[in-house]
Amino acid sequence: METTSSFALLTYNINDDAMSDSAPRGWTLETQHAALRQLVLQHNPDLLCLQECFGFPSRQVFRSLQEQYTFHGDAPSHRGNCWIATRKDSQLQSDGPARKVGPCVLLPLRLGARRLVAGSCHLAPFAEFGPVRARQVSAIVSEVPPDSPLLLAGDTNMREKETSLAGELGLRDAWLEAGSPPGARWTWDTHVNRYYQDGHRYTARYDRILYRGSTVTELAVAANTPASREPEHFLSDHFALTARVTLH
């Protein structure tokens, strides 16, 4: 088999134990989990990073997903757990045990002769906790040898004024590196996603892909179409991100 130098990534805050206020009558958590499973299988990522997981991945509805993915480990966050998984038939495979660093699960990976460390994270919430998020990211970066490629994906909860933090820690921001495409910016949009009917209407780039030692391309927002015939109903209060990662 010819060895590839790139792999596909999907990161998603699935808000596992809740359902949208806009969900149609008869919609259940089991229905939602089945739709989530289908979404993952449709995108078929080599690397899967999930946040706000509660019963995941032990629930019955995810059994077929576990047939295709190996879930290597998790880390608790302020809400639910972060999980990281690789597709079983992918050339991207684990290269050691997962470990917890605050609200992040880190996993060493190999792609042929290439190595990297990837993390699924869910950083501290709320605007006033920017300094906490800075310390969390710094701790994660400090856990990885400086000469090792690092990929950090998930719900960072970062505000726009915190965007410079990644660069200060030697990381690139996939959205900025892509030229700041408008269509791949917002992973939180309560103008269209009325997950909370009484919630404030605003947009945010909470979910990000930060990295070093690689190139991230094909950045796109996913899970941003209605989950049912109800136009304001989505699988989560967040949208997902997909990308292709190429190791140098």
Automatic annotation (TrEMBL):
<keyword id="KW-0540">Nuclease</keyword>
<dbReference type="GO" id="GO:0004518">
    <property type="term" value="F:nuclease activity"/>
</dbReference>
<keyword id="KW-0378">Hydrolase</keyword>
<dbReference type="InterPro" id="IPR005135">
    <property type="entry name" value="Endo/exonuclease/phosphatase"/>
</dbReference>
<protein>
    <recommendedName>
        <fullName>Endonuclease/exonuclease/phosphatase domain-containing protein</fullName>
    </recommendedName>
</protein>
<dbReference type="GO" id="GO:0070260">
    <property type="term" value="F:5'-tyrosyl-DNA phosphodiesterase activity"/>
</dbReference>
<dbReference type="InterPro" id="IPR036691">
    <property type="entry name" value="Endo/exonu/phosph_ase_sf"/>
</dbReference>
<dbReference type="Pfam" id="PF03372">
    <property type="entry name" value="Exo_endo_phos"/>
</dbReference>
<dbReference type="GO" id="GO:0006302">
    <property type="term" value="P:double-strand break repair"/>
</dbReference>
<dbReference type="GO" id="GO:0005737">
    <property type="term" value="C:cytoplasm"/>
</dbReference>
<keyword id="KW-0227">DNA damage</keyword>
<dbReference type="GO" id="GO:0046872">
    <property type="term" value="F:metal ion binding"/>
</dbReference>
<dbReference type="InterPro" id="IPR051547">
    <property type="entry name" value="TDP2-like"/>
</dbReference>
<keyword id="KW-0539">Nucleus</keyword>
<keyword id="KW-0479">Metal-binding</keyword>
<keyword id="KW-0460">Magnesium</keyword>
<keyword id="KW-0234">DNA repair</keyword>
<dbReference type="GO" id="GO:0003697">
    <property type="term" value="F:single-stranded DNA binding"/>
</dbReference>
<feature type="domain" description="Endonuclease/exonuclease/phosphatase">
    <location>
        <begin position="10"/>
        <end position="238"/>
    </location>
</feature>
